[in-house]
C-alpha cells in the first residue's frame, strides 16, 4: 500500500520533547570557580546569616587544621563532611553559623622555619626570639591563606572573613587567660615527671604527637650482684634483668620484682662457647621465663637450687652492674605490681627518670632521680663514662663497660613497635624533666555549688552525657581519660603562647595573682604574645609592688593541644554563638587529640564539656586499602581531583561512603563516583527539560492525581523523613548520614529514571498539553525538582545551584538561601506503597518476557507487544488492562488468571502511530491524520 501525502507528514514538531539550557556535561572544573565568584558577589553567607536571625541555632565548632602545607585528601573529607552537615542543618530550619579556624603555633612550623635556617647555614639559637617568632607567624599566615582558598574551592561555606586562628592576638590573650584559670584554681603545678621527649626537637611531646613504627632496639641482659638478703643463699647470686633500652642503665636506681611470681635460683654447670656467662654463676630468673633465657644466654646444664616467691626478696640490696665505674650506690629490690612474666626475666630494672612505672615506683620509695640525659639526647656528667654519647648510639659502649665489669649476661636485637615523633619521624625517649602539669585528680569546685570533684571524674561524667557517632567513641574516650596521667602542658620551644607565670625563687611556688593574669591578657590582646618576650616584661607584668629579681619568668610555651582545646573560649561566646557547641567533628584519632584536650580544658574552666555531640570519621586509604605515601605513588590529592572532575565529585564520594569507617579513593573509585554523578545530573536534566514552560495553572490537586503520581509523592515523604532526621540536631537519628545519599541516587536511577520517567515519557511527550495525565505528571515533576535540588544542595553544592538557576534564573537567587522543600505528611500512603511494590514485581515478570522477545529479534520495542499477564486472583484487581499497558510500556495488554504470576509474549495488532509509535488497530482510521492514533490526532489538533 502506498502512503498518501497525509500519512507521510512529519509530526516531530508536535512532540513535546524535553528542552532545557542545563547541559548534559557538568564541566565542573570550569563552572565551579564561576559559581564561587557568584556567591561571593551575592554576599551569600551574609544573607544567610541575616535571614536566619531568630531561628534555633546549630553550631558545629571547627577543629583547627594545622597551617603548614597544602590540603590533603583527609582535610577534604573532614571539611566536606562538616560542610554537608552545616548546610543540611541550615536547610532543615536552623541558623547554622560556621566559623572555620586554624592551629598556627607549635613545633611543625618552628621545624619548617629551622629547616630554612639550616639550608642557609644560619644558627637558629643566634636569632632573636622576636625575629624568629615573626618568621613563624609569616610562615603560618601564608599557609593559612593557601588552605582557606583551597577549602573554599571545595565548596565549603563559612564565615571565612571572620575565621579564627590561634595566633590572632585576641586568641593568644584568651589562651593566656585560660591558663590563668588553671593557675588560680590550683590545678596547675610544676613537677618532675617522665614525659615523651624528642631529642631531635628538644621538647616534650603529647601522646597525640606520637606515632608508633617498627624499630630495631638493642637488648641487654644485665646481672645485679646481690649484696644483702635475708636468705643467705641469695647473697652473691645475680638478679638478671632484660631491657630494650640499654641507654637507661646509667639511670638505674632499683630493680622491681613481682611478689606472686615464682623465681628460680639457678646454678650454671655448663655454657655455650659464645655465652657471656660462666660455669658457677648463680642466677635469679622468673621460673616461667627460664627456658627462653637459657636459649638467649647460652646456658647448658644447670640446676635449680630452689624456687621462691617474689615476696621473699623483700629487703634485698644489689650492686649496680657498673659498680666501681662511678655507680657505687646500692640498688634495692622493690615490689612492683606492673612486673609480669610475659617477656624478659621477671625482673625490671628501674630508671626513675625514664619511665612512668619507674617514676611512680621511685616516688613511692623515695628513689633519687638523676638527670642523666640532656635535651639533645646526649648523656650528662651524671652518667659517668658515657658523657656526651647520644643515647641511641650508646649501647655498644654500655655493653663493653659491662663486659669489662663481668655483669653482661647477653645481648641481642628486637624489632618492636616504638614511639616516634610524628613530625621528625625520629624515635623518642622517656625523660624526667621539670614540666607544668594540670592535675587530673585534685578536687576542684565547679560552678556555683560547693561540691568538689576532680577534672577526671567530671570529664567522665560529661562523656556519659554526650552523644557519640558512632557510639564506640564513648568508651574509647572514656578509657583514655580514666587511665591518663596528669596533663603535661609545657613545651620547650619559642613559637606559641607562653605559660605566663612567675615562680618565686625563694619558695619555688608560682604566683597565683589575678592582677598579673589580667595585665598579661590585656597586653596580649593588643600586642600579641610577643609582649612576654619584650625587654622589661617581668617588671611590666609583676607590677610596681614586686621585685623581678626575686622571681623566675617562665619561658616555656603551652602545648598546642591546650591551645586548640581552648578554642571554644575565643570562638563561641565572643561571636554570640552558643556554648556548649552542638557538635565536634574530626577523625577518629582525635579521641586522644582535640576531643580529649577540649574536654579537659573546658571541664577544668567551665565544669562542662564543650560539646553536646561528637562525630568521628575514618582515615582515607588507597583503592587497595593501603595508607597513602609518596613513595608508593598512591596519593590522591584533592587539588588534582578538582582539576579533573570538580569538587562536587569529591563531595559525592564523601557522602556515598560510610564515613565512620576508613574510606578508599583512587582512579577507579573516582570514575565510579563520576558515573553516579552523571546519573543524578541526567535525572535533573530530564526533569528540567520536561518542565519547560510549566506554570502554576497546570497544577493538579493531590486528590485528583493518578495513583502513580501519588506513589512518587509517597516516596518523597520517605526520603524527606530520612534527610530531616539526619539533619535535625534534635532528632534521635541526628548526624546519621551514612546511606542517605546512596538512597537518593537509587531513587533517581531506579524509581525515577528506570520506572516513573520511563512510564510517563509517553504522556509528557505525546498527550495534549491540558490532559490531566500530563498535567499531573508535570505537577509531580515540579515537586521532584524542588525536592531534589534542595536535598542535593548540601552535597552537590555547585550542581544543585546550577539546576535551580536553570529553571529559576534570578540574579539574586540561590538554592542555598532556601530550606528543604516542604513535603506534606498527608502524602504518606503505606497501603498505596505496598500495592505499587506488588505492581512493580509483576511488571518485572512482563519486562523479562519482553526482553526475551527483543533478544530473539521478534520485536525491537516493547510498544510492538501486547503481552498477557496471568496473575493469582488476589492480584487481578490491582490495575485495569489499559493501566498495565501504560506501566509496562506496551501497546496492548491482557490479564489472565494463574496460581503463580507468568507472562506470555503477544504481538500488538494494528499499525504504528507516526507520532507516539504505539501499535494500535485505530491507526489509519482518521481521514485528516491517517498516520496517527486517536490520542495523537486530538493532541495535534489541539495545537492548531
UniProtKB/TrEMBL annotation:
Class of the enzyme per the UniProt entry, highest EC level: ligase
Residue ranges occupied by any Aminoacyl-tRNA synthetase class Ia domain in the UniProt entry: 35-665
Chain ranges for the short sequence motif 'HIGH' region as given in the UniProt record: 65-75
EC number of this enzyme: 6.1.1.5
Keywords noted in UniProt: Aminoacyl-tRNA synthetase, ATP-binding, Cytoplasm, Ligase, Metal-binding, Nucleotide-binding, Protein biosynthesis, Zinc
Zinc finger FPG/IleRS-type domain boundaries: 912-938
Gene Ontology MF terms: aminoacyl-tRNA deacylase activity; ATP binding; isoleucine-tRNA ligase activity; tRNA binding; zinc ion binding
Subcellular location: Cytoplasm
UniProt domain Methionyl/Valyl/Leucyl/Isoleucyl-tRNA synthetase anticodon-binding: residue ranges: 709-865
Residues that, per the record, bind ATP: 630
Entry note: cofactor: Binds 1 zinc ion per subunit.
Binding site for Zn(2+): 913, 916, 933, 936
Signal peptide per UniProt: none
Cofactor: Zn(2+)
NCBIfam families listed in its UniProt record: ileS
The family this protein is said to belong to: Belongs to the class-I aminoacyl-tRNA synthetase family. IleS type 1 subfamily.
Quaternary structure and interacting proteins, as annotated: Monomer.
The protein's name in its UniProt record: Isoleucine--tRNA ligase
Organism of origin: Neoroseomonas eburnea
Lineage summary: Bacteria, Pseudomonadati, Pseudomonadota, Alphaproteobacteria, Acetobacterales
Gene name per UniProt: ileS
